[in-house]
Specification:
Number of helices: 10
CATH superfamily: Ribokinase
Helix content: 25-40%
Structural class: alpha/beta
Largest sheet: 10 strands, mixed
CATH topology: UDP-N-acetylmuramoyl-L-alanine:D-glutamate ligase
Order of helices and strands: EEEHEHEEEHEHEHEHHEEEHHHE
Number of domains: 1
Strand content: 15-25%
Radius of gyration: 18 Å
CATH class: Alpha Beta
Number of strands: 14
Strand order of the largest sheet: 5-4-1-8-9-10-11-12-13-14
Distance between the termini: 42 Å
CATH architecture: 3-Layer(aba) Sandwich
Oligomer: single chain
Length: 314
């Protein structure tokens, strides 16, 4: 197997069932205007966008055998290299309710597969064979309920000696504990950043102060996705901000994953911090314009890239 420069790890894949309707009325009959089913999970969403941006990528992790077909079909149709550990049981189904009237998205996430510590050890052995100094390793998404909260932390500790650059994008305890193992990069959203730092980050100066707190704890690169307000990317020497583009929104689900994909592609190509933020922002905007969790096309990303106005904050 060739070793791509970007490897994504999905421990808890999902089938994303997106239901679009005018406005959800709790306790009443709701008629769905459009429905779609996309193979997903944050790592697989990242994989799809990396591939759409024209970069070789290998997807790995765990995959339930009972409903693996949509995932395998996706990889085959897009010629995406994959090497998952097959487990008994079904991958979870995540239901996304997208309301046209309010642009509100409600999510119902079901339980999924139940990997064991032995399965995690098998995956770690696989990743050790793939990790190298020129490789970006993206660990993203929630952990299966069967795995302890420090699972990402243990993977990071074991893989860092290889010299690979690890980007962590998770939430809750798995993110908090994972950061203590000092991955190369992380991309929290604003609520996650506030929870991590104990800061009520509400404006430019407080966003940057909270990001600097993360950098001081051991990160080399930190991103912050701010939804409709934009995004921030920083190291201890540089900080860049990109205001959000004004585009028609089809679905915000997967926008953060597209941001991670664009950031990882740009960094793996050796692009500057500002250019990395621009590509990440364009990839996220292109994804927002697509229904479900589909990636935007390469051409759509390039068109949006030309419209981004960066601000250097240090």
């Amino acid at each position: 197997m060739n070793r791509p420069s970007i490897i994504t790890v999905t421990l808890n894949p999902a089938l994303d069932h997106t239901l679009s309707l005018e406005e959800f009325q709790p306790g009443q009959l709701n008629r769905v205007a459009e429905a779609r089913l996309d193979p997903g999970g944050k790592g697989i969403n990242v994989t799809s966008v990396v591939h759409a941006l024209g970069e070789p990528v290998l997807a790995t992790g765990f995959l339930g055998q009972a409903n693996a077909e949509p995932f395998l079909k996706l990889f085959q149709e897009r010629a995406i290299e994959h090497d998952f550990i097959a487990l008994p049981g079904e991958n979870r189904t995540n239901i996304k309710l997208v309301e046209h009237a309010t642009q509100r998205v409600s999510e119902l996430n079901c339980p999924g597969i139940s990997p064991t510590q032995q399965h995690l050890a098998l995956l770690l052995a696989k990743l050790k064979d793939l990790a190298a100094p020129n490789v970006w390793l993206v660990l993203s998404g929630s952990l299966p309920a069967s795995l302890p909260s420090d699972s990402y932390a243990k993977l990071i500790e074991a893989l860092k000696p290889s010299g690979c650059r690890i980007l962590l994008d998770s939430s809750g305890d798995s993110l908090k504990l994972g950061l203590k193992s000092h991955p190369y990069a992380a991309k929290p959203n604003l609520p996650e950043l506030c929870q991590l730092t104990g800061r009520a980050a509400a404006d430019k100066s407080s966003w940057l102060a909270a990001i600097d707190q993360l950098l001081a704890s051991g990160l080399t690169l930190a991103g912050l996705s701010l939804g409709a307000q934009g995004a921030l990317l920083a190291t201890q020497k540089e900080a860049w901000f990109a205001p959000a583009l004004s585009i028609p929104v089809a679905s915000t689900v997967g926008a953060g994953d597209a941001f991670v994909a664009g950031l990882t592609v740009a960094q793996s190509r050796g692009q500057s911090l500002g250019d990395s933020l621009a590509l990440a922002t364009a990839a996220a905007a292109a994804a927002v314009a697509m229904p479900g969790t589909q990636p935007g096309s390469y051409q759509a990303v390039q068109t949006l890239l030309a419209k981004i106005k960066l601000e250097q904050w240090r």
